[in-house]
């Protein structure tokens, strides 16, 4: 029992990391209709700039983290302005590849500055553990879970109740019509990228903590792990990202223990995809997605 | 220039002077156009498909650059200030709003949310609420459907929504691009009355129409656009009476004979 | 009209979407060779009715028979094969394909060749392609599309697109042609031109037509019978001259409060029946240079 | 250039009433010369050009071009965005080794078998795709990659499991062994023979896709892409069309996989991952979606540009060589390559095909198009 | 093993092929590795390690007193297909390949190397390639390493023979290798591998695996994984308050760990295995010189440097033999390889015995403990060139 609770706790924090990474995709997709592969780059930048500000400049960790998140948000917005905006409404394919090109460019820049070795980001959580009854959970995981929940709540409210949230949805649906109502598509697009950048950066920082995988090259790959989560939850639904993340995280963790041997090598790696397909068969728009409106 | 009957100062309202518009490097669509929309008037624009009517609306509402077009020469003044090069947001805030050709409602937002987007530049919630009620009164059909995804509305309902959305901004100049397209006669009539009502309420209207009978019957003044230039203009009544215009732009009933021939050929 | 077995029989069709009833209870019959119009206020369920006829929507209840065969439960593609073609209210062309390819697609179900023989450009595939193009060329010429047949549809003006849609539907050699607001967005002469093409095609190809249209002048002129829908229900189904004078139709559709609207709508009817002389000019000529001298009563 | 059924220029006034347009695949003299040159080059070029490095690069490009042609059928012509293409290439590759290597059957058997195996799986997944659109399909198709890698890792008797397998299938056609080509007294290196094989296949598939796309089945795919409901209402059977697109696309992918296997001589499940799928997508977008030559041009771009950039960045002064920190040549070329993709797509979202078309139009102005303003 | 004698190779008699510049008497050797991405740090250190040895040989006048060695690289991005491209890029410029990083890349090159008669020194520890005729493998296998590591622990504390032995490893061949080595050595005292917990290289959360190991009561765990997996391992173990003995490969260490919170756990619970010896001591002259070499550019000596050094020693040993034979063409080098009986590494690695068709890879392994004070690399040799007294299966 304790064992299972322990695995559940692990699954929840893993799920929250997935959710954070997925949310970045979801925001951009919801507001601009672009499927943004560069998200992985934000993860890298967030982690390394925090390292730089904390370990090299000497700022306190939290200050460094907040500054990095802001910095990456800015970088993301600039990227959107310079490279993506022009092709955003072209078709589905061109923006995917432009963002792929952007993704390719980011790690080399990082490794030019910080080399290719493993680094220590110096987070305050370290390996500290909180025990609740028999179940133990690292402080870092608590931080991930808490922040994820806050972020998601904020987003839910934001999209439902604010003008800007509405503007974002409208722009995604029809940029010209939104523009005609006085909604600046540029502002909306940039803002959504900035948010995605901030989320990616936060995800990156958490991944680079000692309780994560550490800071090193290849961090951008982790963003891709969130892809099945996005679909499972529904590509335009922040809530879906979270529920999807939790489902995948928890089931994957249990699969590691209870199913791996019977289903062959590498089963837990396909678990997210199998879950995604299972959901797709029943609900092609994902758990919380809405069906595309089409009529003739 | 304009032989209109209203003799007010031309620094009021919308004044387009010598406007030339081009798409890309080479496609010139409007050539030296002069247009004027005075306060509290309805001005109709007629012309065959591709004449450049929509392009004119884009020039006025700042949407040209979105389509890769630009003003090459000339000026557009709104209430005395040049609005060439302003972005659509500034223009909306200056009091010009538009109904795009082809409805363009937000298919995956509800009817209500569509209206909210329409009023997005306005801050006064009470005023918005009143405005919304006013629109629902004007189009009761929309009220019935207010929580439905707009994409599922019928063509005509979508057109009503598009007009309603533009009116949410309480504009001083409303630019309508083919508002009667696909509407039932009673609704066309309704919209005609609405346009007249809007004018009475102090808003001027730039009306682009294929349904010339409808347009000229509500307009004060009219322009005929052909291949990017104004080939004729005048008070709406005069245009309506002009036999050339009748034969080109007015309703089907003029051509009775031919159709009957074809149809009778069928039965013969 | 001839009686006997109708070409199309719609009985007690009901269609709902979630909580919304698009069609309440509609029954009507269309005879072979008839020009049948459907009118009604926006959102009355006209387009939905066409969608039911060609299988895009599945009605909640009711039956539809075409030439005695039930249509419900068949896929749109199968219904097309039975000989029902249509055009769309909001244009549904293949934008990234050429005009010619769009029209040739109308021949799709008359052709049989699959991927393999197409790949090898051999035998049937090759023969069929030649035949399909040969069959489509007259239509393309008829609609005045010859010069642009290799252009991509995307860049063409609205009016031209409407003509391509019609050509594409006619290429299917349908028995029953469904037209959803074919002249929306066209001015008078353009409307006349299109109407004359439709009537020509009807005669030459022996078509039965169901047309949705808000242009009452056109409806009164070309239709044999008019079905009037309101809120998904039939409020009238009769000759145009009868329908437009039906008070319920006037109230629901044409605009009951305002006399002049009725006058406007019925103007064509009166004129049409009054006028007997015919002109030799083709409709397309009329659209171009010649200035018609016909007069009309001023609507306002 | 692209699939073109246009009549000769002389016919443009359609003097001949109701004459069906001619259906020549290549309708201009320049075009026909081009085709002839292409065919001659496939044989003449490798035999006179011995640089195995560049031949090797071109061989990779050729295989990528074939695989991308398959993706172009699905994504370009049929409008289904897929990031799962690498999975089908890998099925083809392992099938080729199983049939050609383990069973020892000749190329005339293993090459089609590679295509068919991939196509069978393609046909099986086609029905799912019908319900999905846009990014949904893209990501769901990613699952294919993950699943195929997982399966391949768990059937070591065929795939060699994690560690992969050497490829012993032989590239022989009757007496011709492309891996050890010799003509009379002349014998050629492997790359030269493989060039002839690979680029002949490129030519063959160019012809086959061109034919499909100008005939009934291919037209239906494009129609479904542009407007599925309208296509259905015209009598196009969605399911069949979708399945056609998947089968054709994956068949081509499988054949490409077979060629990749013999060319590489060693294959491993993990090599056919997401990055490969993205590369194929990059090829068709950079080359030009839904165009015949797009995949070929795109493949040349995607395989040769990094090589050229590499050579170029090698000579940049501030680059670190050897084992110490600093930006390596590799990082530099990754950076430049990413930058090139971005710049190129911003400048020409329609791809290399559009660039070439523009250049051609500048050289030889197109005939006036009678578009717009129906006067 | 550096038989610097033998003046038999006058340039007049030397038959040379690609990679030899007769004007400068320079022999060029090539490296195929990834200089970007997660593996780049490893690659760079290996290169520096190779360069250090060549510098030393060149400074002493070169092989046979006159032939200098030049090192060039090509990038494989850690992909097999790119490795083939990289191979074609440099093959005409090199006499042999002094390093190919990554087992997949090595395997992809085997058929080509066989055809071209190219000799390749693989940077791989895979037992399956040890008898490939064109390869000159130099390292002990993963199997040997983990076996030695566990044997070391058990011999220090015989009570541990009754411990429960487990594996936490990648769900790929590397994990299988560790499992195989551990199964082999534990069978010597009648034990077995209780649990093999698997994870993917990109897994961030290892709580479930750790719970699995803990529940099974594992006390000694063989690990396969890279440095970037270790924080997650330590985090999960700490979370569960779980402290078995871990036997890690040297690839699992990173300099950065010494200043990170995981250092204490490493020190208490982990030993590392690999080639080399006392990284800071002076007993071994080769290590000392390597540590002070210019090629390291002031960096702290790591096992990866030694790894590269070992490859370079193998290269020069082979070249000496070939030069003695008067033939450094591809065929000549291949022949020299087939004639070479063994390669020795000055005490930084066990001997490779090159019995044709049945080679024996080094069975000895240096055992390191982790100590962050021994910083910053943190590996402190507690036993140099240790071979399990139980013996190592010759097939490893
Ligand atoms: N973005 C664009 N780029 C290039 N040409 C354009 C663009 N938009 C419109 N055009 C061309 O400009 C001309 C005028 O178009 P416009 O849309 O203004 O006509 P319109 O009078 O509104 O026609 P309609 O009655 O069909 O709506 C047409 O020939 C059209 O092809
Ligand atoms: N797919 C759908 N989902 C939900 N509601 C729908 C759907 N299709 C149609 N409706 C609803 O059914 C009603 C009838 O629509 P329909 O398109 O048939 O009207 P119409 O008579 O063609 O109107 P118009 O003249 O404006 O085109 C509308 O209220 C519309 O909102
Ligand atoms: Mg227009
Ligand atoms: Mg309708």
UniProtKB/TrEMBL annotation, chain A:
GO terms for biological process: amino acid transport. Its main location: membrane. The chain crosses the membrane at residues 7-28, 61-84, 96-121, 142-161, 193-215, 222-251, 271-290. InterPro entries: ABC_transp_permease, BCAA_transport_permease. GO terms for molecular function: transmembrane transporter activity. Pfam families: BPD_transp_2. It is a multi-pass membrane protein. One of its GO terms (cellular component) is plasma membrane. It is found in: Cell membrane. Keywords: Amino-acid transport, Cell membrane, Membrane, Transmembrane, Transmembrane helix, Transport. It comes from the Bacteria. The keyword Metal-binding does not apply. The keyword Nuclease does not apply. Belongs to the binding-protein-dependent transport system permease family. LivHM subfamily. This is Amino acid/amide ABC transporter membrane protein 1 (HAAT family). It comes from Thermopolyspora flexuosa.
Automatic annotation (TrEMBL), chain B:
This is Amino acid/amide ABC transporter ATP-binding protein 2 (HAAT family). InterPro entries: AAA+_ATPase, ABC_transporter-like_ATP-bd, ABC_transporter-like_CS, BCAA_Transport_ATP-bd_LivF, P-loop_NTPase. PROSITE patterns: ABC_TRANSPORTER_1, ABC_TRANSPORTER_2. GO terms for molecular function: ATP binding; ATP hydrolysis activity; branched-chain amino acid transmembrane transporter activity. The keyword Isomerase does not apply. Gene3D superfamilies: P-loop containing nucleotide triphosphate hydrolases. Residues 14-252 form the ABC transporter domain. It comes from Thermopolyspora flexuosa. Keywords: Amino-acid transport, ATP-binding, Nucleotide-binding, Transport. GO terms for biological process: L-amino acid transport. Belongs to the ABC transporter superfamily. SMART domains: AAA (SM00382).
UniProtKB/TrEMBL annotation, chain C:
One of its GO terms (molecular function) is ATP binding. Residues 8-256 form the ABC transporter domain. Keywords: ATP-binding, Nucleotide-binding, Transport. Residues 278-290 have a biased composition (Basic and acidic residues). Transmembrane segments: none annotated. Residues 266-300 are annotated as: Disordered. GO terms for cellular component: plasma membrane. Residues 291-300 have a biased composition (Polar residues). InterPro entries: AAA+_ATPase, ABC_AA/LPS_Transport, ABC_transporter-like_ATP-bd, P-loop_NTPase. PANTHER family: ABC TRANSPORTER ATP-BINDING PROTEIN (PTHR45772:SF1), CONSERVED COMPONENT OF ABC TRANSPORTER FOR NATURAL AMINO ACIDS-RELATED (PTHR45772). This is Amino acid/amide ABC transporter ATP-binding protein 1 (HAAT family). It comes from Thermopolyspora flexuosa.
UniProtKB/TrEMBL annotation, chain D:
Signal peptide: none annotated. One of its GO terms (molecular function) is branched-chain amino acid transmembrane transporter activity. The chain crosses the membrane at residues 30-47, 53-74, 81-101, 107-129, 136-152, 194-213, 245-266, 272-292, 299-319, 334-356. It is found in: Cell membrane. Pfam families: BPD_transp_2 (PF02653). It comes from the Bacteria. Keywords: Cell membrane, Membrane, Transmembrane, Transmembrane helix. GO terms for cellular component: plasma membrane. It is a multi-pass membrane protein. This is Amino acid/amide ABC transporter membrane protein 2 (HAAT family). It comes from Thermopolyspora flexuosa.
């Amino acid at each position: 029992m304790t064992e299972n609770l322990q695995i559940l706790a692990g699954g929840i924090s893993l799920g929250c990391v997935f959710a954070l990474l997925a949310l970045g995709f979801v925001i951009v997709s919801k507001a601009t209709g672009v499927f943004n592969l560069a998200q992985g780059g934000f993860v890298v930048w967030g982690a390394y700039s925090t390292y730089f500000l904390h370990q090299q400049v000497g700022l306190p960790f939290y200050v460094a983290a907040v500054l990095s998140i802001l910095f990456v948000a800015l970088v993301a917005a600039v990227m959107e302005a310079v490279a993506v905006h022009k092709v955003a409404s072209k078709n589905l394919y061109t923006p995917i590849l432009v963002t792929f090109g952007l993704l390719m460019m980011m790690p080399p820049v990082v490794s030019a500055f910080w080399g290719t070795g493993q680094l220590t980001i110096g987070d305050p959580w370290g390996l500290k553990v909180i025990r609740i009854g028999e179940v133990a959970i690292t402080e870092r995981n608590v931080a991930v879970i808490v922040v994820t929940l806050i972020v998601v709540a904020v987003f839910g409210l934001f999209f439902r109740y604010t003008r800007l949230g509405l503007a974002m949805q409208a722009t995604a649906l029809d940029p010209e019509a939104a523009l005609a109502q006085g909604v600046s598509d540029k502002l909306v697009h940039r803002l959504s990228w900035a948010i995605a950048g901030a989320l990616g950066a936060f995800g990156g920082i958490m991944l680079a903590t000692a309780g994560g995988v550490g800071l090193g090259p290849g961090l951008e790959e982790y963003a891709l792990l969130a892809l099945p989560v996005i679909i499972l939850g529904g590509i335009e639904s922040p809530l879906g990202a979270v529920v999807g993340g939790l489902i995948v995280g928890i089931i994957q963790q249990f699969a590691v223990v209870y199913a791996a041997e019977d289903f062959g090598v590498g089963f837990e790696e396909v678990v997210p995809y199998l879950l995604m397909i299972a959901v797709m068969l029943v609900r092609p728009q994902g758990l919380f997605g809405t069906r595309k409106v089409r009529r003739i | 220039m304009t032989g209109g009957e209203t003799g007010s100062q031309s620094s009021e309202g919308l004044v387009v002077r010598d406007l030339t518009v081009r798409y890309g490097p080479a496609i010139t669509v409007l050539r030296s156009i002069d247009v004027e929309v005075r306060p509290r008037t309805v001005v109709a624009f007629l012309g065959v498909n591709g004449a450049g009517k929509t392009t004119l609306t884009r020039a006025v509402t700042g949407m040209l650059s979105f389509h890769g077009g630009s003003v090459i020469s000339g000026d557009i003044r709104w209430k005395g200030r040049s609005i060439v090069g302003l972005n659509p947001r500034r223009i909306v805030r200056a009091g010009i709003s538009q109904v795009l050709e082809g409805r363009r409602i937000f298919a995956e937002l509800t009817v209500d949310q569509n209206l909210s987007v329409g009023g997005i530049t306005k801050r006064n919630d009470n005023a918005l609420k009143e405005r919304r009620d006013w629109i629902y009164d004007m189009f009761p059909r929309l009220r019935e459907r207010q929580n439905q995804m707009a994409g599922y509305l019928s063509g005509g309902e979508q057109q009503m929504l598009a007009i309603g959305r533009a009116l949410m901004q309480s504009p001083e100049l409303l630019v309508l691009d083919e508002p009667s397209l696909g509407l039932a006669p009673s609704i066309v009539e309704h919209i005609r009355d609405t346009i007249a009502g809007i004018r009475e309420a102090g808003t001027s209207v730039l009306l682009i129409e294929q349904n010339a009978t409808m347009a000229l019957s509500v307009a004060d003044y009219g322009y005929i656009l052909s291949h990017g230039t104004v080939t004729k203009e005048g008070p709406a009544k005069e245009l309506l009476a002009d036999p050339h215009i009748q034969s080109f732009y007015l309703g089907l009933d003029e051509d009775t004979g031919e159709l009957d021939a074809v149809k009778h050929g069928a039965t013969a | 009209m001839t009686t006997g077995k109708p070409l199309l029989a719609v009985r007690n069709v009901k269609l709902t979407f979630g909580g919304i009833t698009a069609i309440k209870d509609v029954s009507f019959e269309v005879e072979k060779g008839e020009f049948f119009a459907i009118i009604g206020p926006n959102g009355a369920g006209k387009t939905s009715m066409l969608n039911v006829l060609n299988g895009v929507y599945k009605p909640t209840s009711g039956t539809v028979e075409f030439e005695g065969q039930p249509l419900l439960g068949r896929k749109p593609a199968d219904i097309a094969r039975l000989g029902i073609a249509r055009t769309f209210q909001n244009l549904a062309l293949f934008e990234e394909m050429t005009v010619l390819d769009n029209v040739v697609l109308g021949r799709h179900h008359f052709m049989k060749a699959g991927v393999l023989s197409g790949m090898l450009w051999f035998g049937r595939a090759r023969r069929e392609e030649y035949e399909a193009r040969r069959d489509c060329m007259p239509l393309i010429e008829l609609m005045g599309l010859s010069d642009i047949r290799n252009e991509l549809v995307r860049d063409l003006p609205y009016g031209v697109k409407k003509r391509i849609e019609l050509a594409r539907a006619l290429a299917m050699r349908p028995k029953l042609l469904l037209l959803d607001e074919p002249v929306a967005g066209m001015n008078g002469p353009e409307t006349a031109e299109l109407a004359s093409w439709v009537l020509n095609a009807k005669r030459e190809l022996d078509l039965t037509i169901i047309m949705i249209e808000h242009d009452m002048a056109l409806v009164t002129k070309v239709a044999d019978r008019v079905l009037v829908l309101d809120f998904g229900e039939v409020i009238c189904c009769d000759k145009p001259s009868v329908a437009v004078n039906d008070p319920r139709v006037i109230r629901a559709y044409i605009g009951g409060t305002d006399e002049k609207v009725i006058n406007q709508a019925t103007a064509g009817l009166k004129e049409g029946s009054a006028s007997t002389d015919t002109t030799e000019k083709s409709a397309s000529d009329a659209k171009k240079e010649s200035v018609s001298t016909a007069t009309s009563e001023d609507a306002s | 250039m692209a699939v073109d059924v246009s009549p000769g220029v002389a016919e443009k006034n359609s003097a001949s009433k109701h004459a069906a347009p001619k259906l020549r695949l290549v309708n201009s003299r320049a075009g026909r010369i081009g085709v002839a040159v292409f065919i001659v080059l496939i044989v003449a070029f490798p035999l006179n050009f011995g640089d195995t490095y560049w031949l090797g690069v071109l061989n990779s490009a050729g295989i990528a071009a074939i695989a991308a042609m398959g993706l172009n059928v699905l994504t370009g012509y049929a409008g289904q965005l897929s990031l799962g293409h690498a999975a089908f290439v890998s099925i083809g590759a392992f099938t080729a080794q199983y049939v050609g290597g383990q069973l020892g059957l000749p190329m005339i058997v293993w090459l089609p078998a590679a295509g068919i195996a991939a196509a069978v799986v393609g046909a099986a997944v086609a029905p799912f795709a019908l319900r999905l659109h846009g990014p949904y399909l893209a990501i769901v198709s990613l699952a294919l990659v993950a699943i195929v890698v997982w399966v391949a890792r768990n059937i070591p008797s065929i795939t060699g499991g994690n560690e992969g397998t050497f490829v012993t299938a032989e590239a022989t056609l009757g007496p011709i062994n492309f891996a050890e080509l010799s003509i009379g007294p002349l014998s050629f290196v492997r790359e030269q023979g493989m060039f002839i094989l690979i680029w002949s296949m490129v030519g063959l598939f160019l012809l086959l896709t061109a034919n499909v796309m100008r005939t009934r089945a291919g037209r239906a795919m494009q129609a479904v892409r542009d407007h599925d409901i309208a296509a259905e209402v015209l009598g196009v059977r969605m399911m069949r069309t979708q399945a056609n697109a998947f089968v054709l696309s994956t068949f081509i992918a499988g054949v490409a996989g077979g060629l990749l296997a013999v060319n590489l001589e060693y294959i491993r499940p993990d090599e056919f991952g997401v990055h490969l799928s993205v590369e194929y997508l990059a090829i068709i977008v950079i080359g030009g979606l839904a165009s015949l030559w797009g995949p070929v041009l795109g493949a040349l771009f995607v395989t040769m540009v990094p090589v050229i950039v590499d050579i170029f960045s090698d000579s940049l002064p501030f680059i670190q060589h050897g084992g110490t920190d600093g930006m390596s040549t590799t990082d530099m070329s990754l950076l430049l390559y990413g930058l090139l993709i971005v710049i190129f797509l911003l400048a020409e979202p329609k791809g290399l095909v559009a660039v070439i078309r523009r250049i051609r139009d500048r050289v030889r102005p197109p005939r006036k198009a009678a578009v717009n303003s129906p006067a | 093993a550096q038989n610097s004698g033998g003046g038999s190779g006058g340039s007049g008699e030397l038959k040379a092929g690609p990679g030899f510049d007769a004007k400068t008497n320079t022999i060029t050797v090539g490296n195929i590795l990834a200089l970007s991405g997660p593996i780049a740090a490893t690659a760079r250190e290996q290169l520096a390690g190779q360069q250090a040895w060549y510098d030393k040989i060149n400074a002493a006048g070169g092989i046979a007193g006159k032939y200098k060695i030049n090192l060039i690289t090509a990038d494989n991005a850690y992909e097999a297909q790119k490795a083939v491209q990289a191979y074609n890029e440099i093959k005409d410029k090199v006499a042999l390949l002094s390093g190919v990083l990554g087992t997949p890349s090595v395997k992809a090159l085997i058929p080509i190397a066989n055809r071209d008669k190219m000799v390749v020194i693989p940077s791989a520890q895979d037992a399956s390639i040890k008898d490939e005729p064109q390869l000159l493998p130099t390292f002990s296998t993963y199997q040997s390493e983990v076996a030695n590591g566990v044997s070391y622990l058990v011999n220090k504390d015989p009570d541990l023979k009754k411990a429960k032995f487990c594996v936490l490893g990648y769900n790929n061949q590397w994990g299988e290798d560790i499992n195989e080595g551990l199964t082999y050595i534990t069978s010597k005292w009648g034990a077995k591998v209780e649990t093999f917990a698997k994870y993917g290289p990109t897994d961030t959360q290892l709580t479930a695996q750790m719970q699995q190991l803990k529940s099974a009561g594992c006390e000694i765990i063989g690990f396969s994984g890279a440095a970037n997996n270790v924080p997650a391992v330590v985090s999960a173990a700490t979370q569960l308050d779980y402290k078995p003995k871990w036997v890690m490969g040297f690839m699992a260490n990173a300099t950065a760990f010494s200043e990170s919170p995981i250092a204490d756990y490493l020190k208490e619970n982990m030993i590392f295995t690999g080639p080399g010896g006392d990284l800071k001591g002076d007993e071994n002259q080769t290590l000392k010189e390597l540590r002070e070499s210019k090629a390291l550019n002031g960096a702290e000596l790591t096992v990866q440097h030694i790894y590269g050094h070992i490859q370079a020693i193998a290269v020069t040993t082979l070249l000496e033999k070939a030069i003695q034979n008067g033939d450094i063409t591809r065929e000549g080098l291949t022949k020299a390889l087939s004639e070479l009986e063994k390669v020795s590494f000055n005490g930084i690695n066990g001997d490779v015995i090159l019995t044709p068709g049945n080679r024996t890879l080094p069975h000895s392994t240096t055992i390191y403990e982790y100590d962050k004070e021994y910083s910053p690399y943190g590996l402190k040799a507690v036993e140099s060139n240790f071979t399990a007294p139980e013996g190592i299966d010759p097939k490893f």
